[in-house]
Amino acid sequence: MPANDVQPDFYDLLGVGPAASSEEIRRRYRFLVMAFHPDRFSRNPEHHALAEQRIKQVNAAYSVLSDPQARARYDVVRLAGILGPRVAAPSSQYAQLQRELEQARGRAHQAEQDVHLLRTWQEAIIAEKASLQRDLDDRERAFRSERQALEAEAKILTLQLEQLARERMTLDQLLKDQLAQANSKAAQLTQELASRERFVENLAATKADWERSNQSRLELMAQQLRRLQEELSARNAALAQQRHAHMTLEERLARVERDARQAAQSLANALQLKQQEAETLQVGVRTAEDAKRREQRTIRLWQIAALIGIVNTLILFILLFVR
Asked: Is 5 among the domain residues?
């Protein structure tokens, strides 16, 4: 760096001391890039141009101070520029004082621009915070309405599931009773059929003697046997139909249980999405507070208070939902 250059001090540009650590320089650089980003001042061409100039100076300073070797060379040149005029002639001291005065004026002008830009940025942050608060209120209202709808749907599904369970128990008991009755009747019919078969066999044994006199009686017995067989077939068909109805009810109950599980999963996914949105808003607010930590302490306290209120509100909603 030549002695006759009027160039701002890189440490002064970043707002750190010569003994600042690399991490402190990196944090300060991120803060300045966020504070003087030209997109924040796109509505005012003059402020936009000043922000671009400021960003270029900050980038140049960070490119030197972030590199240990370049920073060491810059420190040597800087110390040489600071200590050199102390052993120079009086005229050189006067010229150096003039340059330092010009540099001080330039820094003062730059500081005024920075303050103006920071005020503009502060207004933008306040407007953005109000927009975020409105967005958060809208999301909270939508979340409450959606939660109420999901709770009502869950209650309805629970009642339906309980009703289906009661119906299933009733049908199971009814089917068990009917099956027991059918088994009893089937055993009785089997006994009757065996008895009648034995009776038919006896009749067949005496058919030769009783063929003419008992022809009508044999036909009547055959008709009764056919009716008994048809009745047995009809009862077997009714039992099969009841079993099919029982299986249909079980499939319907399985579908209802699956729908209930899907509804519960949808509710859990919706809650997780709302929690992620709340965490994203919280991270944005914290980032804004970190960016204004060194310049606006009073504003930071208000932002921290607002952030605590938002977090408490979110925690309250989450706790109420969990209960």
From this structure: no
In-domain check, residue 2: no
pTM of the model: 0.32
Total of domains in the chain: 2
pLDDT band at 107 (very low <50, low <70, confident <90, very high): low
pLDDT in tens, 132-157: 677 667 777 776 777 787 788 778 87
**Same domain? 15 vs 158:** no
What range defines the domain where residue 296 resides? 133-322
CATH number, position 50: 1.10.287.110
Q: For residue 195, give both structure tokens.
A: 């008895």
Q: Is 3 among the domain residues?
A: no
Which of 174, 175, 220, 225 has its CA nearest to residue 196?
225
Do residues 33 and 149 both lie within one domain?
no
Judgement on whether residues 93 and 215 belong to the same structural domain of the protein: no
